[in-house]
Amino acid sequence: MVITEAIHQHVLKVPAAAWTPAVEADGEIRDGAWVAELSGDVLDGWPEGMRLIVRKERPHPGAQLRLTDADGMRLTCFATNTPCRPIAELELRHRQRARAEDRIRAARATGLRNLPLHRTAQNRIWLEIVQIALDLLAWMPMLALTGKARLWEPGRLRLRLFTAAGQLVTTGRRRILRLAQHWPWTSHITTALERLTQLPNPG
């Protein structure tokens, strides 16, 4: 939700005692993050029962602050009509839903930005292909990649992993994939392949 000037002014007036530590899914406190609920005339004109919750959080190193941020903290807010639930619980639910936005962005980068074909039946097949690709993009990082590589977007995966030059060689009844040693992300590919071979066989 965009922080308007009116909301921003209310956030700046929230007393220190009104901020509650944000939490993680396991119930532990989220380091460097707090939440508070805004009330009063900032909600004038809103539907009855609406709640406005704001989170302040220390940005990760290198992140650029926005004009609406304050005191070195990244400010974000969201509205909900869910009653009688602690604001830290509501903020966690909202943060977890942000993963859906990540999937939507990945879908657009994987073929859903435009439907390339003329007929509905043809585009239906295209959508099925995109869905298969999205499933692979969702499972592959979890099963094969480690560290920051798990967070790479589809474009970065294509650039660094999927388009890496290689040569498939058959020798001694074995197939060997040879990758260029000078490619900066060759180790990511070989590590991913090793992790996949170590997975238990579902059969």
Describe this structure in words.
It is built from five helices and six strands. It has 203 residues and is of the alpha+beta class. The chain has two domains: 5-96, no CATH class; 114-203, no CATH class. A hairpin with a 5-residue loop joins strand 1 and strand 2 (29-38). It is elongated and about 75 Å long. The mean pLDDT is 89.
Which outline best applies?
Answer: elongated
Kindly state the mean pLDDT as a whole number? 89
Note the beta-strand portion.
15-25%
Order of helices and strands: HEEEEHHHEEH
Helix and strand composition category:
alpha+beta
* Biggest sheet features: 4 strands, antiparallel
Termini Cα gap: 47 Å
Count up the helices: 5
Instruction: Count every beta strand, where a strand is a DSSP E run of 2 or more residues.
Output: 6
Q: Helicity level, as a percent range?
A: 25-40%
Number of domains: 2
Strand order of the largest sheet: 1-2-3-4
Compact summary:
With 203 residues, the chain is of the alpha+beta class. It has 5 helices and 6 strands.
Q: Which SSEs are present, and which pair or pack?
A:
Layout: H1 5-12, E1 20-23, E2 29-38, E3 51-57, E4 74-80, H2 87-112, H3 120-144, H4 154-162, E5 166-171, E6 174-179, H5 186-197
Antiparallel strand pairs: 1-2, 2-3, 3-4, 5-6
Kindly list the characteristics that best describe this protein.
4-stranded antiparallel sheet, 5 helices, alpha+beta, elongated, 20% strand, 203 residues, 39% helix, two-stranded antiparallel ribbon
